[in-house]
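FAQ

Q: What does a record look like?
A: Structure on top, sequence underneath. For example:
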């Protein structure tokens, strides 16, 4: 069976949610951790991603870099998890959905009714 290529935004070193998602994604063997923008500090995120086994060209400095990088690939990720601070969920989730990606967003997806309606 082909594994789904999975990317994560947030969940960097020292977070609680990052390890929870990475461990959970490996339990059934259906996902391969392929790409990530893991920290609000670009260099720290890139370095941590590579320590976790991501290829250097798929260990991104921020989510906008990841979106552009994955959109331009022949083998983009199949699914992105948004595990960033709550106030950033809407913008990141919307951008990846508009980019054609499947998204799993931590709750809450939005911070306002207007964002939810949009």
């Amino acid at each position: 069976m082909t594994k789904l290529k999975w990317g994560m935004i947030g969940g960097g070193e020292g977070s609680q949610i990052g390890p929870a998602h990475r461990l959970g994604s490996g339990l059934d063997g259906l996902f391969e951790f392929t790409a990530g923008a893991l920290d609000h500090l670009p260099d720290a995120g890139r370095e941590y991603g590579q320590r976790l086994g991501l290829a250097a060209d798929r260990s991104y400095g921020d989510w906008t870099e990841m979106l552009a990088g994955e959109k331009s690939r022949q083998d983009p990720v199949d699914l992105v998890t948004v595990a960033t601070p709550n106030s950033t969920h809407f913008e990141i989730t919307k951008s990846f959905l508009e980019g054609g990606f499947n998204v799993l967003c931590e709750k809450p997806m939005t911070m306002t009714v207007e964002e939810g309606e949009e």
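Q: Is there anything notable about this one?
A: Strands lie at 4-10, 31-37, 79-83, 102-105.
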